[in-house]
């Protein structure tokens, strides 16, 4: 199925894209065309080989989207709505590419933008916005995922104008080829707070090892990181990161991006299933003519559309400055849960053909499992929302 005559997606039944202004829509369509030509034809092959398309990184830089919204970058300002639609668009084509971009432009650049001094923002963000330097974000640890706020084991010891980092990190996207890695560590000593550091990958004592044998987001280069007496200058400590509350502020914004990605995965699954059932013939006609098939298709589209409405409102709250932790937490938990259901229905409609890469849906089914887990599990995000609505914390 082709897009509508004005270039909008037929899957966007309520035409939410019309909420973008003309310039924003032109940017989104430029990204859409790039993904259609440069990513979509190869995404299954990259995923199957667990091979990241490093050759495309400069092309991504030419799009000029990584620096949007950061005043230190030359790019035009961007609304949260446009940023959300770009995340959706990437995930609709390839959740791995969306994850690479989200780690770089959201987590790494967002940490520097929100927790760095003006000098630090000027030092790093322009080159990162052009994607001449790639960023990673190292928070999760081998023994610390959901409890990382209290259980952070990576340490930072100050020696004069230098900080010495020791510890391990796990599941760090982009870390095998990133130039700059934002590392979160707890300062040694009684009452030591959480600090953020921009670690250059060439720093002695920093080692990143590729995680292999993944069944989701296989194109993403996740890494285990080991920091051994890794010496980082004070000028690389994020000057406005004073505790985990600042880390959580970064996560609040990027968590909403995952909700947008989940919608993109749902729309991809729906489009694949719709096209397939219109073409697949059984019992003398296309299977799309059967009531039970149409029921599943409408359920898929309804879930995706309702979640799209949710994240659109989330972006509006963010732009209005009334965006809170529970807003992004509830959206991430709800949208990724619905995503799991939707991709499952899509695979069901493709029957046996749904378990091979040749028909497209299998990659989205597998990648949905990673989106469901990262940036806070459903349970943790539910508890964040529950604490907000009841006034009672129930984490332990």
Give the overall shape. globular
Task: Report the portion of residues in β strands.
Answer: 5-15%
Largest sheet: 7 strands, mixed
Q: What level of helicity do the residues show?
A: 40-55%
Which stretches are low in confidence, meaning pLDDT under 50 for 5 or more residues running? none
Order of helices and strands: HHHHHHEHEEEEEEHEEHHHH
Tell me the number of strands.
9
Count of discrete alpha- or pi-helical segments spanning 4 or more residues:
12
CATH topology of the largest domain: Butyryl-CoA Dehydrogenase, subunit A, domain 3
Number of discrete domains: 3
Structural class: alpha+beta
Task: Return the CATH class of the largest domain.
Answer: Mainly Alpha
Rg, Cα atoms, Å: 21 Å
Task: For the record, give the distance between the C-alpha atoms at the N and C termini, rounded to a whole number.
Answer: 49 Å
Family: Belongs to the acyl-CoA dehydrogenase family.
EC number: 1.3.8.6
Pfam families: Acyl-CoA_dh_1 (PF00441), Acyl-CoA_dh_M (PF02770), Acyl-CoA_dh_N (PF02771)
Keywords: FAD, Flavoprotein, Oxidoreductase
């Amino acid at each position: 199925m082709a897009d509508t005559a004005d270039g909008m997606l037929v899957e966007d039944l309520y035409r939410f894209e019309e909420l973008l202004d003309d310039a924003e829509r032109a940017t989104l369509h430029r990204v859409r065309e790039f993904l259609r030509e440069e990513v979509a034809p190869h995404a299954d092959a990259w995923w199957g080989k667990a091979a990241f398309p490093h050759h495309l990184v400069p092309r991504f830089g030419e799009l000029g989207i990584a620096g949007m919204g950061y005043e230190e970058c030359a790019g035009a300002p961007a609304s949260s709505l446009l940023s959300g639609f770009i995340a959706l668009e990437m995930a609709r084509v390839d959740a791995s590419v969306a994850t690479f971009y989200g780690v770089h432009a959201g987590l790494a650049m967002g940490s520097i933008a929100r927790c760095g001094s003006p000098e630090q923002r000027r030092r790093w963000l322009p080159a990162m916005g052009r994607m001449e330097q790639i960023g990673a974000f190292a928070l999760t640890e081998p023994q610390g995922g959901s409890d990382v706020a209290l259980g952070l084991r990576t340490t930072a010891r100050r020696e004069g104008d230098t900080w010495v980092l020791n510890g391990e990190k796990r599941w760090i996207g982009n870390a095998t080829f990133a130039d700059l890695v934002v590392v979160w560590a707890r300062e040694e000593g009684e009452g030591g707070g959480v600090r953020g550091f921009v670690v250059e990958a060439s720093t002695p004592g920093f080692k990143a090892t590729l995680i292999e044998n993944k069944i989701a987001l296989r194109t993403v280069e996740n890494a285990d990181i080991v920091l051994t007496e890794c010496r980082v200058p004070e000028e690389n400590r994020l000057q406005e990161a004073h505790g985990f509350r600042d880390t959580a502020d970064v996560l609040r914004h990027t968590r909403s991006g995952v909700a947008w990605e989940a919608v993109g995965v749902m729309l991809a699954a729906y489009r694949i299933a719709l096209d397939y059932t219109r073409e697949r013939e059984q019992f003398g006609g296309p299977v799309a003519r059967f009531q039970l098939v149409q029921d599943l298709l409408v359920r898929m589209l309804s879930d995706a559309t309702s979640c799209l409405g949710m994240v659109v409102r989330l972006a509006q709250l963010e732009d209005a400055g009334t965006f809170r932790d529970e807003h992004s937490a509830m959206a991430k938990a709800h949208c990724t849960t619905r995503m799991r259901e939707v991709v499952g229905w899509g695979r069901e409609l493709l029957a046996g053909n749904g378990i091979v890469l040749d028909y497209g849906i299998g990659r989205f089914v597998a990648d949905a499992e990673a989106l469901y887990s990262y940036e806070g599990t459903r349970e943790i995000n539910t508890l964040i929302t529950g604490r907000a609505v009841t006034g009672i914390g129930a984490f332990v």
